[in-house]
């Protein structure tokens, strides 16, 4: 597991796994879209609009997952002085921002036919919007410091402080009485979703994850190169 | 005993500095009142409407005017080297952050608290609600001081994007606004919401020395 914290090892492994991951993501996208658009049934209440779920839910999960991994890497980087964490934070923040934006836009498009409005000030929606703004602040911070050492550490501290938002996003549907429905798939109980809809959802989640990993590998490699040219 | 003397002198120095720059604090308060006027002119002088949304206006403006003075939080001491001198006198960076937060609360936020009754008269908020307004503002402005300390210490070395500090404070103050306005509007839930606000205060007060101290140390080392 050394390649997760060591830049040169990461470069070696990334060269091996980049093409398989890209091909896997294309295959999974084709399969997932086939399942999502043709093979899965319509909802008995929502009709065909339920198919927005196959984009909305994976991007929402991945936006939270990306921030969680960034938090872990910030702790590792600050506590053990491992610079790969800073590289990871700089590289991955725009990917998380894009996932959050996809989640917000698709949710808005889903909300108009179902709830009758593009946006409500409900706890889940507001906290996700705040997550998006936190991602944007991280990206802007990466551009606005001249000293590289200060920039990286300050961004890591900001990510740690901003991670208080994660449990609020996750549990907002349980703590407050919101318009957004509570979590359908949870670890402790049997999922309240039919297997015919569960299958495309899982496939789409893995497809999103693979395309995210592929872009992350490219961005991390670029970041390593720019850092080397800066240090030398 | 020597430590307490040092702390006393620290606050005496802050008092002198703030007294010589008292026009800044007064300008902040004038900004607060002029914004109230502008809000009322843009909404219209209808008494019912104003008393309905008055609390929200008060809180928004307190937040905006306390983010105005954010650049001065550490910047002056950082640039003329006083921060390093205070640190060499035996205060850790985290403790400096706590002291600066308290001094910001005492010398910048307390004048706001004193001007709130006048603002309540202007916004047609009833006298019975004044005690709730005061409670929520006292706790909330201490939280705002802590957040201001975190964001301004983060942006010490940031020479390009000054507004980022204000945005950081505003994005983290969303839960404070929700619960503080809840204290005033839902009087039957006064104690539970006050407890939640105190909990947020304790969390922020615990994070503040760690985050600000680390950022101060980084900026001083790499300056």
What is shown here, in short?
The complex is a heterodimer of chains A (232) and B (223). Chain A has 232 residues and is mainly α.
Describe the 3D structure:
The complex is a heterodimer of chains A (232) and B (223). Chain A is mainly α. Chain A is 77% helix and 0% strand. Chain B has 223 residues and is mostly helical. Helix content of chain B is 82%, strand content 0%. Chain B is globular and about 55 Å long.
Which structural class do you get from the secondary structure elements of chain A? mainly alpha
Low-confidence stretches of chain B: none
Please tally the helical runs of chain A, counting DSSP H or I stretches of 4 or more residues. 7
Helix content of chain A: over 70%
Radius of gyration of chain B: 18 Å
**Mean pLDDT of chain B, nearest integer?**
87
Main interface: chain pair and counts: A-B, 23 and 22 residues
Mean pLDDT of chain A: 87
- Element pattern of chain B in H and E: HHHHHHHHHH
Structural class of chain B: mainly alpha
Write down how many β-strands of chain A occur, each being a DSSP E stretch of 2 or more residues: 0
Stretches with pLDDT under 50, minimum 5 residues of chain A: none
Total count of domains of chain B: 1
For the report, how would you describe the main beta sheet of chain A? none
**Fraction of helical residues of chain B:** over 70%
Cα gyration radius of chain A (Å)? 19 Å
The 3D shape of chain B can be described as globular
Distance between the termini of chain B: 33 Å
Oligomeric organization of the protein chains: heterodimer
**Relative strand content of chain B:** under 5%
């Amino acid at each position: 597991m050394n390649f997760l914290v060591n830049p040169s090892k990461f470069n070696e492994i990334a060269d091996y796994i980049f093409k398989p991951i890209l091909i896997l993501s294309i295959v999974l996208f084709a399969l997932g879209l086939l399942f999502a658009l043709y093979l899965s049934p319509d909802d008995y209440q929502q009709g065909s609009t339920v198919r927005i779920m196959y984009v909305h839910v994976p991007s929402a999960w991945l936006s939270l997952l990306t921030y969680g991994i960034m938090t872990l890497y910030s702790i590792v980087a600050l506590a053990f002085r491992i610079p790969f964490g800073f590289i990871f934070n700089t590289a991955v923040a725009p990917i998380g921002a894009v996932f959050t934006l996809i989640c917000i836009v698709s949710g808005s498009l889903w909300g108009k036919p179902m709830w009758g409005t593009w946006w409500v000030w409900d706890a889940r929606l507001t906290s996700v919007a705040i997550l998006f703004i936190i991602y944007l602040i991280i990206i802007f911070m990466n551009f606005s410091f001249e000293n590289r050492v200060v920039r990286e550490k300050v961004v890591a501290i900001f990510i740690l402080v901003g991670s208080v938002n994660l449990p609020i996003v996750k549990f907002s549907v349980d703590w407050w009485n919101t318009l957004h429905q509570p979590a359908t798939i949870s670890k402790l109980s049997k999922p309240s979703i039919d297997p015919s809809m569960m299958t495309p959802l899982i496939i789409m989640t893995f497809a999103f994850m693979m395309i995210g990993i592929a872009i992350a590998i490219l961005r991390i490699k670029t970041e390593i190169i720019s850092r080397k040219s800066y240090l030398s | 005993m020597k430590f307490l003397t040092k702390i006393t002198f620290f606050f005496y120095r802050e008092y002198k500095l703030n007294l010589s720059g008292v026009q800044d604090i007064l300008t902040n308060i004038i900004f607060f009142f002029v914004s109230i006027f502008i809000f009322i002119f843009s909404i219209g002088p209808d008494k019912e409407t104003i008393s309905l949304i008055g609390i929200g206006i008060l809180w928004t403006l307190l937040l905006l005017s306390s983010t105005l003075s954010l650049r001065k939080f550490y910047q002056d001491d950082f640039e003329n080297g006083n921060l390093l001198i205070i640190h060499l006198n035996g205060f850790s960076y985290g403790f400096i952050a706590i002291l600066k937060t308290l001094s910001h609360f005492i010398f910048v936020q307390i004048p706001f608290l004193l001007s709130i009754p006048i603002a309540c008269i202007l916004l047609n908020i009833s006298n019975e609600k004044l005690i709730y307004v005061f409670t929520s503002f006292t706790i909330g402005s201490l939280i705002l001081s802590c957040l201001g300390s975190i964001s301004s210490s983060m942006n010490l070395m940031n020479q390009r994007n000054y507004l980022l500090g204000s945005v950081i404070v505003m994005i983290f103050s969303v839960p404070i606004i929700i619960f503080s306005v809840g204290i005033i509007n839902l009087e039957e839930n006064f104690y539970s919401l006050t407890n939640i606000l105190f909990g947020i205060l304790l969390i922020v007060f615990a994070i503040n020395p760690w985050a600000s101290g680390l950022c101060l140390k980084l900026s001083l080392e790499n300056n």
